[in-house]
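Example record

The entry below shows one chain as it appears in the dataset: sequence first, then structure tokens.
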Amino acid sequence: MSAGQSPASTAAVPLAAAPVAGPRYYAAAMQTSLPALKDREGVPGRVAELVKMAEGTLAGYAPFHDVRLFVFPEFVHCAPMYTTVPELLARTAVRPEDHVAPYERFCKSNGVFVQTGSFIEHDPKYPGAVFNTTLLVGPTGVLARYRKVNPWIPWEVHASPHDIPGYAEELFPVADTEIGRLGCAICYDWLFPEALRQLAANGAEVLIRVSAYMDPWGAQPPMDWWTLFNRARAAENTAYVVAANQAANVPDYPPFSWPGGSMVVDYDGRVLAQAEPGPFTKVVVGPIDIGALRAERTRRMGHDMLGHLRTEAYTYMNRPRFPGQGSGAVSIEANNARIRRAKG
């Protein structure tokens, strides 16, 4: 604004957001505090346990809210308790398609959507690789598959799909559903604003976080990165956030503790619901109003960060930084070597 110019003297803008059609419902962040499964034989029983938890949530809240989106944490099906890819392939890796039927039945019977907790995935199309994968399931079946683009290095030896030569599937898929356009990223992905910005650019209205975010960066002062980044990603992308975090003691998920704090955040970064920190299985529900979100995105002339983005100004994106894995095996040692190369 130039000197001497007041807001009233500028060109008129709409005074209120015009009504925009869109669904209204509640989302549930399904926080779990369960022992880590150490092998794939326990996955069917764990899936049944989680579906029962969702069924109870749906029935319990029915007098009060239409809960239509259920989000589970990272590693809830099986944890990466082993430090090498061969061990993960031998002990924990599954094809998620083999375990998704109970979620599909729950979604079809009730007209709801589930963002599954992550699986340790092996896909025969990519031999020798394991992925950290979550599925979005709806009344018509599996709607999207997200594979973690930013593994928590150096410890995680899951492959990033970005690093696989010839990988042609969408890195940041967004599903256009009757409850809005949904996009998901996993845990460490959320420390990269580019990942969530890409989901928003792909049309996401609800950003879903499937997470196992540990202490001391979790949901408590003095750091509380969990709340910090969830709120920031919501505000900077004008999107809802539904974030489910693991909550567990060290003996259940050694060597870390997991503080929970699962939450629902609105498109201005307001926390609508949050579980208190601690190793507790809890459900928190919060309202999602897609019509209000769409009206605000249409109306806003200010604080429309995605619309105001001067993409060509940010030249740091023009050159590769973190080196891809290439044809070598993913390992902690290889991750450390790549980190050192990226530092120059």
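Notes for this example: The radius of gyration is 21 Å. The chain has a mean pLDDT of 93.
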